[in-house]
Write a structure and sequence with these properties.
With 509 residues, this protein is α+β, with helices and mostly antiparallel strands. The protein has 4 domains: 144 residues, Methyltransferase, Cobalt-precorrin-4 Transmethylase, Domain 2, CATH 3.30.950; 80 residues, no CATH class; 160 residues, Heat Shock Protein 90 (2-Layer Sandwich); 98 residues, Orthogonal Bundle (Arc Repressor Mutant, subunit A). Helix content is 38%, strand content 17%. It is built from 17 helices and 24 strands. Strands 15-14-18-19-22-21-20 form a 7-stranded mixed β-sheet. The chain has a 4-stranded mixed β-sheet with strand order 1-2-7-4, with helices on both faces. A 3-stranded antiparallel β-sheet has the order 11-13-12. Helix 9 packs antiparallel against helix 10, helix 10 packs across helix 12 and helix 14 crosses helix 16. The longest helix is centred in the C-terminal third of the chain and has 16 residues. The C terminus is likely disordered.
Length: 509
Amino acid sequence: MDTNEHEIDKLIQQGEGLTTEFKSCRKQINRDVYETVCAFLNRHGGTLLLGVQDSGEVQGIEPDAVAQIKKDFVTAINNPQKISPPTYLSIDEPVVKGKQILHIFVPESSQVHRCNGRIYDRNEDGDLDITEHTEQVARLYQRKQASYSENKVYPRVQVEDLRVDLIDRCRKHVRINRENHPWVDMDDLQLIKSAQLYQTDPETGKSGVTLAGIMLLGTDSLILQVCPAHRTDLILRKVNVDRYDDRDLVRTNLIESYDRILAFIKKHLPDPFYLEGIERRSLRDAIFREVASNILIHREYTSGVPARLIIEYGQVTTYNANRPHGFGALNPETFAPYPKNPVMGAFFREIDRADELGSGMRKLMMYGEKYGDENPQLIEGDVFRMIISVPEFGDNPAVVPTIEPAAPQVTPQVTPQVTPQVTPQVTPQVEKLIAVLRGEMARAELMDTLTLKDRMHFSREYLQPALEAGYIEMTIPEKPNSRLQKYRLTEKGRLLLRSLKFGTTDEHR
């Protein structure tokens, strides 16, 4: 049983609930499928399994009916007479227990949707028609508007104010992957309406392009007017740690911002050879494709905090303005993805800039450890952070020239000062501490990693010498005894780690 089949089998065993629904659809699609789609869009999203009975029995879909069911489903959800506003959903065709079923993931929408003119919401018992319940409908609209700033309507911004060349570029892209994609035959206004980038403000009744539409397809000057704080700061900081070795300040639309983020990554990070089965896979591209889309489509654009991606020795750290749904490090085993800007996310998925919600996170965690020897750290808060370990240039000498311009100015000053003083004075205990310290770690984490139990011994032989030598630093230096205290490598510590990792001695430096 492959991974996808195993995950679906687990869903079936858990049974139907708030975010899971089974439909038999043996020969044709059930009419109430669309009511469920509408309810999922309006509530928290969910998973539809066609070919599974309410009891959880996998009945399967007749092979001759699969193509027609898929066609009917795609046609219906793109028809504003059926689902309004229309949406785009992908369909997988897994085989479970030897039987063909269809798997449809429905993300939560930032808009209120109707099915056949009726509004549906979701609870544990199924789909509820709340059209006549004024208070419930009002609360639904309020929740959508309060949760998603991307829906703000700008009545004075119309389709002609956007980058027509970008719209056409997106249309051509989807045509390459799917000739019958609905966008192919739409004009520009129809396309941005179908992508939910053109809406009507429920309070004023005025229509216009939304914040999401402007950020995705707007001119640079228009973006500056509606979101003056928008920028993504890309920094390489390895040699000149007080400033930077290379920098790109990105202030353009999200589509071209994505391309520039990946170009910066490819310029400065190695791409070691990796085989997955018999095919070569670029771990770097798989990881940072997700990182780039996360920085852009999960950002809170009402915040004045700019996004940053910083490449340092051994790691990449990102900072992104966030509207948190929790605080602290995320556990990949229990983490439930939440769409911060679902309209932007859906658009990025259509043009292959992002994966389905949740699958990108799984790829990031799966490949992150293979790429940098450490699992990525994801920390939720008002500023969302990702810390991703990366292999160093010593593992891939071919990429060293990317930082050569800075080397002549800095290297002669750094090497003679640091090397003779660092290596000979380091005790074996400090070396072990430096070797295991990744990102920010608490005392208990470090002791557990080093399999030490004596707190005083750890402090005397490991922690204090490393602090006094300047290899590590406290995250809360003003409160040394804080219960939240953690420790991280300094630049001096990273240089030491590099020497330990590659076995560099004074003779070779």
